Amino acid sequence: MTSRKDQNPLIGLDELARLLEAHDGPAGARARPRVARSGGLRRTGLVAAGTLALGGAVGFALASSLTPSGSAASRPAGLGFVPSSGWTVIQSGADASPTRPAIAIASNVPLARSDDARGIRRSSGLPYATLLDLPSDGVVIVATFSLPPGEDWLGDRFPVRETPLRLRDATPFFANSTQIRPDRPLGEYALKANVNGRDVDLHFYFGTGAPSIATVTAAQGQLDRLVVEPTTRPIEVEERALPLRSTGPSANVAAANVVDRTLACKTGAGRGARTVDVNALSGFRKGGRFEWLGQLIVSTPGQPVPSRPGYEPTLVGLTAGWPPSPPLTSGSLGYSIVRCTPSRARVPLTRRGLGGGVASRQLSGDEVKCYAPVTVLIRVRASFFGTAKLVRTDDRTMLQAIARIRTGQVAVRTPNGKALLYGEVDDSGTARLFSARSCF
């Protein structure tokens, strides 16, 4: 999973070199500053109070900005972690700013003195000395919070996710093909998410490359206490944590006769209102072949730029009709991996309660707009005559399966279950579109 990590690494090579020079074994005993109570919240003397602010604080301090192992806060608010029993947490206690991210570290082992004494403000985001001595059942989680770029950003984006995040979504991470501890390699995983308007870059360090189920589950338990926005969803910890992805070479997505995905997709605003837009077009056959295929395209307004004033990024698309005219070779299914993330929500493929019918064969097709919340649920399903495999497009913004489609369906609903749109397209090139009465 590539992103702006390469442009803004958690730790640079120069910083790593300075850390290596500074770390010459356990630091000698040193007095730790005493931190007074503030605002009725207990803080312990792990780090001086003066190091707990990053840049211009905006008041996003957690209920316990710095908490010792085994203690926890009951009312979290802000950015960072509320510690699970037996965990130590340090965090910056300020919101991310455009020029400086916020950082939080959670560990199920005591932080090394040299990492502790540096303080979170001067931290590179890598508790290096702690990781050097991390036992096999040890876990360190580093979270970096930053403000996302504007919608005209052309690089990779952080996928929109909801808390509690799932450790099973993390991917093995290799920084410059080097290991922090080559003689006893750590298990390193990365997870990126856009949560509540902030990009959250999480790195998990396990004391071994093959952590036990108990260790992974414990890490998930602490991940559940990541605070970006409160959550109370009762999902089993082990289910979100396991299994971890293989650290070996990633395999291609298996080919299948049916592709069925439910997605949570972020909508855009156009002329002051968020909408989800659909274009439905029935195919047109000439000389035994389709001049254009039947299609269903679900899109949303994007950030306009001078070169693309009417820019509408596609969320989900289906095309079908056989046989096509060159250069087309078949129909296709595709969906955005920039604006959409997998969802477990139930979205039935039905037109019940919606009105519509067969889409026009005129080249402009039929267009429908529906007012929508920030996130909509979209289910897209296609059955293929043969097998199809989802692969990334060249611009790495979509997953796409190119193959002859027997039938394709798409349904759009709000998170509270209100049906907005339903459409279908088949091998005959016929597209059908049905929408709610509130759409226009």
**What is the SS-derived class?**
mainly beta
Approximately how much beta-strand content do the residues carry?
A: 25-35%
Largest sheet: 8 strands, antiparallel
The share of residues in helices is under 10%
Mean pLDDT across the residues is 76
> What is the domain tally?
2
The coarse overall form would be elongated
Number of helices, counting only DSSP H or I runs of 4 residues or more: 5
Rg over CA atoms, rounded to whole Å, is 25 Å
In the predicted model, the low-confidence regions spanning at least 5 consecutive residues are: 1-77, 230-236, 248-253
Characterization of the model:
Helix content is 8%, strand content 34%. With 440 residues, it is mainly β. The model is unreliable at 1-77, 230-236 and 248-253 (pLDDT under 50). 43% of the residues are buried. The protein has 2 domains: 4-241, no CATH class; 256-435, no CATH class. The strands form 5 sheets. Strands 11, 12, 15, 16, 17, 20, 22 and 23 form an 8-stranded antiparallel β-sheet that branches.
